[in-house]
Design a protein that fits this description.
The complex is a heterodimer of chains A (191) and B (151). With 191 residues, chain A is mostly helical. Chain A has eight helices and no strands. Chain B has a domain of 33 residues. The chains are: A mainly alpha (191), B mainly alpha (151).
């Protein structure tokens, strides 16, 4: 005998409401982190905001298919990475758009330091170090940069990075090691 | 035959773990910490900045409007240039056709005139010839008249 479950409209409406509330809380808790990752990847505030919007729009459309196999953060980060990849791919195709890039230069990106009580000299040294790291990040491959930013800005564990990027943990480690070697070389070269 | 990568300076026989690299280099650790703090400060400021949606929209719509206007002007210029060129060609071809038709008409008129002149000349010469000759039908009568006169 086939079991037939009929949901009454009241129950369905309640379920929809619940899903909407759940999604709202996910947006509220993860939006700054997604924005930060996209900002670090693009160095363009407007573009990062646009891609963040697109990320949550896409997530909203597919929220019903999110089964919770991974954390919501990992799922959202994967969407963000794919959107960012798509964006650069389209950008390459539409080459004339490259002249309209709004990415800030490395010096401007290095200007941002937490407002602490440190001395002027300490801040200058910190700015120099941040500039060197940006310079090294600029020279990384797309995949290395993504892995590096997920580890050292978003502080994800290697397993989480592997899950987010779809790479094995070994590959993530290899990318990170190469990225760190590059940063170290940049720091060493100017030390 | 197995592929062996070329050795490069700085390569070690075993890939170092990221955690090992961090731990072995305090300067690197410090730099990574500064980078993270900087990125967080920038992101926080950008995320919480007051969004001047109005001004951005106005600014962008102004740019958009200027872009569209320029595009429209260029399109209109190109199209009107093309149309003007086309019009010029049509007018020139019309003038040429009219000129040719006029020439043909004049030539035809001239031919008709020449033909009429030729016909007139022929008729005139025929008339002259006819008037000079004595009609053969009247010949015997003329002879009779002459004979009668002589008798």
């Amino acid at each position: 005998m086939a079991a037939c479950t009929i949901l009454d409209p009241m129950t369905m409406a309640t379920a929809d409401e619940h899903a909407a509330q759940e999604f709202s809380s996910v947006v509220a808790s993860h939006r700054p982190q997604i924005f930060r990752f996209l900002l670090a990847s693009t160095r363009d505030v407007d573009l990062a905001e646009t891609l963040t919007q697109e990320c949550f729009l896409k997530a909203h459309r597919n929220w019903s298919s999110f089964r919770g196999d991974s954390s919501a953060m990992t799922w959202l980060m994967r969407i963000a990475i794919n959107l960012q990849k798509d964006h650069w791919r389209n950008r390459r195709m539409q080459f004339w758009r490259q002249t309209r890039t709004n990415s800030v230069d490395l010096d401007e990106a290095s200007d941002w330091l937490p407002s602490g009580e440190s001395s002027q000299e300490t801040r200058l040294l910190a700015r120099e170090r941040v500039s060197q790291v940006w310079s090294a990040v600029e020279g990384l491959s797309e995949r290395q940069r993504t892995v590096f930013l997920l580890r050292y800005v978003e502080e994800l564990e290697l397993s989480e990075i592997a899950h987010t990027t779809g790479l094995s943990e070994g590959t993530v480690k290899a990318h990170l090691s190469r990225a760190l070697a590059r940063v170290r070389a940049e720091l060493g070269g100017k030390r | 035959m197995t592929w062996k990568p070329k050795w490069k300076p700085g390569w070690t026989s075993r890939a170092e773990e990221p955690a090992e690299i961090e731990a072995s280099d305090p300067a690197l650790k410090q730099a990574l910490g500064d980078f993270k703090a900087s990125m967080r400060a920038w992101s926080g400021a950008a995320y919480n900045r007051p969004r001047a949606v109005q001004s951005i929209v106005v600014h962008r719509s102004w740019q958009l409007a200027a872009g569209w206007s320029l595009a429209a002007v260029l399109l209109a210029g190109t199209m009107s240039g093309g149309l003007y060129e086309h019009h010029q060609r049509v007018v020139a071809s019309r003038i040429a056709a009219a000129h040719k038709a006029e020439q043909e008409r004049q030539a035809a008129a001239q031919r008709a005139l020449d033909k009429a002149q030729q016909e007139d000349d022929v008729l005139a010469s025929v008339d002259a010839d006819v008037s000079r000759e004595v009609p053969s039908a009247m010949e015997p009568l003329a002879q009779l008249t002459d004979e009668g006169d002589s008798k």
